[in-house]
Amino acid sequence: MPVIRLTDIHKHYVVGEEQIRALDGVSLTVEQNEYVAIMGTSGSGKSTLMNILGCLDRPTHGTYELDGNDVTRMGAAALARVRNDRIGFIFQSFELMPRLTALKNVELPLLYSRTGWWGRSARARAALTKVRLADRMKHRPNQLSGGQRQRVAIARALINDPAILLADEPTGNLDSRTSDEILALFEDLHRSGQTIIMVTHEPDVARHAKRVVRMKDGRVLSDLSSEQDVRMNALPAMPISSK
Ligand SMILES: Nc1ncnc2c1ncn2[C@@H]1O[C@H](COP(=O)(O)OP(=O)(O)O)[C@@H](O)[C@H]1O
Ligand SMILES: [Mg+2]
């Protein structure tokens, strides 16, 4: 059973007289433990797709099955539970709570579960240790570097052992050395079985994934292994014959 099965997903917006087809018939299947990069120019529908995958938004048409459950038919409360328990999010801007320590930030998703305070703390400590921040648990976000903040966000995203880890431009605010650290961490997570879907516009970042889905005008333009994608997209431009 695939982790994700999207069938003919549409997301339309009406702005004034205009109808915008942010997604215009996307069908996509992602198996367990895949590591997928989503690429495409600005406005091609990447974030809209991530918001639907993350159950932050609902499609206008089409079905989305997550772990075999049709989430497009769920009510708001059930959807909120899926979002909290089955999905881990990482954003370009980290989205940590500024007043909370790293530990308290990572504990947040557990507040909605039945885990008691001691269990919450123990699990958050373990998650922070996994991202090599055992010595920064009591620091607040503004006392951490960008890479450290993103590692806190990753620990928080993983705390409920999600079916999918969704990352929208996770290295967009990081320098190249720190980006490499985050990508190495993703590599470890992938090796340990985590399913990962990451949006990026940087070919060097996309190359770390095993599969590359390219979007254009709300549709899937290509869906290739990363080796094939590099071959298709890194070809030198054909010289224009001069006759
Ligand atoms: N809330 C919205 N209302 C109207 N149009 C939107 C909304 N969100 C996104 N769009 C439009 O949908 C298209 C896809 O946007 P988006 O998914 O953010 O693209 P990307 O992340 O690839 O840059 C764009 O044309 C954008 O302007
Ligand atoms: Mg976007």
Automatic annotation (TrEMBL):
A GO term for molecular function: ATP hydrolysis activity
SMART domains for this protein: AAA
CDD domains named among the record's database cross-references: ABC_MJ0796_LolCDE_FtsE (cd03255)
Annotated Gene Ontology cellular component terms: membrane protein complex; plasma membrane
Keyword DNA repair: no
Entry superkingdom: Bacteria
Keywords tagged on the record: ATP-binding, Nucleotide-binding, Transport
Residue ranges of every copy of the ABC transporter domain listed in the record: 4-242
InterPro entries: AAA+_ATPase, ABC_transporter-like_ATP-bd, ABC_transporter-like_CS, ABC_transpr_LolD-like, MacB-like_ATP-bd, P-loop_NTPase
SUPFAM superfamilies per record: P-loop containing nucleoside triphosphate hydrolases
Pfam families per record: ABC_tran
Family indicated by similarity: Belongs to the ABC transporter superfamily. Macrolide exporter (TC 3.A.1.122) family.
Protein's name according to its UniProt entry: ABC transporter ATP-binding protein
Source species of the chain: Humisphaera borealis
